[in-house]
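New to this. Explain the following:
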Amino acid sequence: MFKLAVTLLALQAAVILATPSKISPALQATFNTKSSVDVMVVLKEATRPILDQIAARKYTNEVAKRTAIRSGLMEFTEASQANILSFLSSRAPSKTARGYWITNRIFIAEATADLVSEIASQFSEVAEIREAIVIPLEETVKVADYKVPITNETEPAWGVARVRAPEAWEAGFEGEGVVVANIDTGVRWNHEALIDNYREAYGWYDPYDGTDISKDFQGHGTHTMGTICGTHGIGVAPKAKWVACRGCGTFACTEDALVRCGQWVTCPTRWDGSEPDCSQAPRVSSNSWGGGQGDPFYNDIVDSWRAANIVPVFAIGNSGPFCRTANSPGDQDNLISVGATNEVDAVTAFSSKGPLINDINVVKPEFSAPGNNIVSASYLDVGGYSSLSGTSMACPHVAGAIAVLLSRNPDLTFDQIEDAFYDNTVQPPIDETPCGNVTDFWPNNSYGWGILDVSSSVGSVS
C-alpha cells in the first residue's frame, strides 16, 4: 500500500511537470510529498491599472470613492476570473474555490497535481500557480500576566508615556471620531479596557469560523488592540473606536484569510459577509504580522487601502539583530513599517533591520516605537492584562498615534501624517555603524527616522 501511494504521488509530479512554466518550482516539489495543496492561481491581468483609473476620477466624498474602488475592481476581477471559476465549479465542485476582488487571484483548497496542471495548460490568462502563503504569527515574548490593571490614565503604560501620548490628550486629542482596524487573531470585545470602544456594527469579520462577534482564541490581537485604543492607561488613542478582522488563527495567518480581511477593511460587511457598506471603513489598519522578505503578495491590498485613504501600518518583524532582516509586507513601499525600542530607547535585539534585501538604498523601518515589556489587555479575562515584547507591540503604538493625529485633523493625508512624524521623531544618541548605504546616522536602518513623538506631531499639524 505504501509503495502504491508513493507511485501515485510520483505520477502526479510527472503530470504537473508537463506545464512547468506557470507552476512554481516550490509547488512542484510539494506535490512530490503531498497529494493535495492549498494553492493560489495568479492571473496575468493586474488590478493596479484599474485601481489607478478609479482613483484618478473625481468624487463627491471619500465614501463614494471607496464604493467605486470596490465595484470597479469587482467588475474587473469577476470578468477576468470567470472562465477559471466556471471550470472549477464543473471539474472540481467539491473543492473550495474563491476569487477575490481586491487582487486578481483565485484560491483553491486542497488542489491536486492534475487539477493544477489542467488549469495551467488550459487557461492562457494564468500567470502563475503557487502554494498559498502561510505566515507564522510574529513571535512575542510573554513577560508576565496581571489580574488587575497596573496602569491608569494618570500613570499610563511606559510605552504610551514614551511616545508622549498623554501630552496630546491634555491638548484635547485622544483619537475621538477615528476608527482603527487591526488584522490579527481577533479581539476579546468585552475586555474592560476595550468594551466601550468597540464599534459592533460592521465591527467584526472572521474568515475562519464565521463567528458573529469579536473573539480572540490566542491573545495576540487583544493585546495589540489594547495598545492602539484601550482605556485604563494602556492605549495611545483611548477615545478611538476599533473594529477587527481575524486574519490569523492560533499559530499562523493564511493568505486566504489575510486577503479576505484586506477586502473587508477596504469595505466592511456584516459579520456574515452580507450588506457591504464602504462608509464603515476604518482610517487606519494595524498589522502586527509578516514573514519572508521581498514578497509583494500583499501590495494589491495595500495599494487599495492607500487609494481608499486608509493608512497601512505593519510591524517590521522580529528577525533581528542583523542587517537586512526586514520582513514582508513591512519591507514593501506605500506603507509605514515599525521597529521596536526598549525602555532606554535602544533598538531591541529582536527588531528586524533594513535595508531591503534587493535595494541597499531603501531605509526600513520608517519609524520606531516601544515594543519591549508592553502591558496591554489579555484575552484570558475581562479584567486581565499581560506584558509582551515584539515588534507586534511597537506597531500598534504607531497606529494609535495616527488616530490621535486624525482626531486633530481628520482630513490629513498619508503623506501629511508621515511628514508630521518625520519632522518630530526623537533621535537618541547612537554610536553603532548603520546598516546599508547610509551616509549619516539619521535616518538609519535600525530606528528609521526615529522614535515616535505623538505630542510634537500633533502640535505640528493644523
